Amino acid sequence: MRILHVNKFVYRRGGAEGYMLDVAALQREAGHEVELFGMEHPDTIEGLALRDTFPPEVELEPAPRGLAGVAASARMVWSLSSSHGMARALERFQPDVVHCHNIYHQLSPSVLAPVRRAGVRCVMTLHDYKLACPSYQMLDHGRLCDACVGASRLNAARRRCKSGSFAASALLSVESSIHRRLGAYDPVDVFISPSRFLADVMLRDGVAPERLAVINHFVEMPDVEPPAGGRDGFVFAGRLSHEKGVDTLIRAVAALAEPVWLHVAGDGPERDALEALASEVAPGRVRFHGRLDKPDLQALVASCVASVVPSRWNENQPLTILESYAAQVPAVVTGLGGMPELVRDGVDGLVVPMEDPTALAAALDSLRAAPARAAEMGRLGRERLSREFDAGLHLRRLEAVYRGEGTGVGTAVPAAREGRR
């Protein structure tokens, strides 16, 4: 099978890019012919056969000012360079299927029009809530919000959801409204959702059930050996931003009667504030590692009693939870988004309310005080991975969707109202 993966960035930048590159590698190993398409960027991986078809780079964070800003805004809605580049890539590679990922803004859904004209089957993995929420995260000034789901996208402008800015929020609202009115995503035959929660949001927003498939992500299963000296402390791995709830985790660690280490792996806009908070409420208990490469992060997670995902937003399917299980380490999470689908409370981890440092501290202390229980939870988590998140199983499910063998592959998507968006 000839597969063309499409994403705005074609280098290992975040979760969506990492997933795309890992899936592409698996598919090549399985004997498929795979190529990549995206936006030109200095960090784009070398040696791509279709790179000369890529549209030019546009910088949107921060957005340019003046006429450059107007041009960038127009490109978010519809990009002729992206459309023309995709047409050239399709003509040259002649794929059997186009698999899209994050195409918003830098590419725009303009890349889908040539796919439809070419008569090529198109699927799209949803890595966030962008199709139902103009600002991606279903947050209103840091609080959970679903005002735009199944309703006017102008709600995002009214609420100034994007960084509190009316101008930025209005731009995203107009962009989403135009795409919705034009049916810009109609060429997508099937949307792939990693979680039931995200699929339900799409159904509520009007995506027809026959266009949805729920397919779990996959994770590598390296051989692991428990540390000789036993596990100690807890770990958070991810972006240091408000919605991740790391401040709640620091306060929970501060509340523990028995001092334990909290390891924070990652970086982001809240790092300075979090380091200050840790120095104030939990001095000597929190270590900030910054970004770690994959082997070092795996080793860190494997050394800890549990990983913690204290998010205050609806996470989709965090790979950090799966990677924790791969290391036979349980996860402690808040009961939001797709996380309760991954963590069976009391079986392979613990589920706590969001923004409740007392409840989180109690959960952490219960695992610290019962290392055998924590180890058994981690073992059960890894056992579940081998059944439900295996790479080979993931590829077979993808191939079934590529061939048009129905939706709800692997996990049934509940029925919802009719209508094609």
Number of E strands: 14
Helix content: 25-40%
The top-level CATH class of the largest domain is Alpha Beta
* Strand line-up in the sheet with most strands: 2-1-3-4-7-8
CATH-defined superfamily of the largest domain: Glycogen Phosphorylase B
Q: What value does the Rg take, in angstroms?
A: 22 Å
Q: What is the mean predicted local confidence, pLDDT? A: 91
Reported for the largest beta sheet, the result is: 6 strands, parallel
Percentage beta strand: 5-15%
Distance between the amino and carboxyl termini: 28 Å
Kindly summarize this structure in a few lines.
With 421 residues, the chain is of the alpha/beta class. It is 39% helix and 13% strand. It has two domains: 2-131 and 185-218 and 391-402, Rossmann fold (3-Layer(aba) Sandwich), CATH 3.40.50.2000; 234-387, 3-Layer(aba) Sandwich (Rossmann fold).
Task: Explain this structure.
There is one protein chain. The chain has 421 residues and is of the alpha/beta class. The protein folds into 2 domains: 176 residues, Glycogen Phosphorylase B (Rossmann fold, 3-Layer(aba) Sandwich), CATH 3.40.50.2000; 154 residues, Glycogen Phosphorylase B (Rossmann fold), CATH 3.40.50. It has 15 helices and 14 strands. A 6-stranded parallel beta sheet has the order 2-1-3-4-7-8, with helices on both faces. A 6-stranded parallel beta sheet has the order 11-10-9-12-13-14, sandwiched between helices. Strands 5-6 form a two-stranded antiparallel ribbon. Strand 12, helix 11 and strand 13 form a beta-alpha-beta unit. Helix 8 crosses helix 13 and helix 11 crosses helix 14.
